[in-house]
Amino acid sequence: MREIRVGDIAIGGGNPLVLIAGPCVIESQKACLQTAASVKEIAATCGVPYIFKSSFDKANRLSAGSFRGPGQVRAARTHIFVSFRIGEQT
Question: What are the backbone angles phi and psi of residue 57, rounded to the nearest 5°?
Fold first, then answer.
C-alpha cells in the first residue's frame, strides 16, 4: 500500500492508524465544531492522529425532501473554520 499525506499526517504505507471522522453531512458550523472538538479529544486520548471529514451533499437520502447539505461553498468555509479552530486537518 502506498503512503498518502494529508498536511503533516501520513496515511497508509505502513503508518499507524489515522481517524478520519465527522458528521455525515454539514448541518451547521456550530455542530461541526462541537463534533470535531469532541472527536479530536477522543483521538488524542487514544494517541491517534485525526482528520475532520464531513459531506457537503448527501444525495442518497430516503426522502427527496430531506436536507442534503449546505453546498460546496458553504461547506468549504465550514471546513476551513473548523480546521482553524481545532488545529486539525480537514
Answer: -150, 115
Give me the residue label for grid cell 458553504: 74
Q: Quote the cell numbers at residue 88.
A: 486539525
Question: Which residue range is the domain that position 57 belongs to?
Answer: 4-86
Q: How many CB atoms lie under 10 A from the CB of residue 90?
A: 20
Q: What does residue 75 show for φ and ψ, rounded to 5 degrees?
A: -65, -45
pLDDT tens digits for the chain (90 residues)?
A: 899 999 889 999 999 999 999 988 888 889 999 999 999 999 999 999 999 888 877 776 667 777 777 788 888 888 888 888 888 655
> Domain total for the chain?
1
Around 33, how many Cα atoms within 13 Å sit in the side-chain half-sphere? Answer: 11
pTM for the full model?
Answer: 0.77
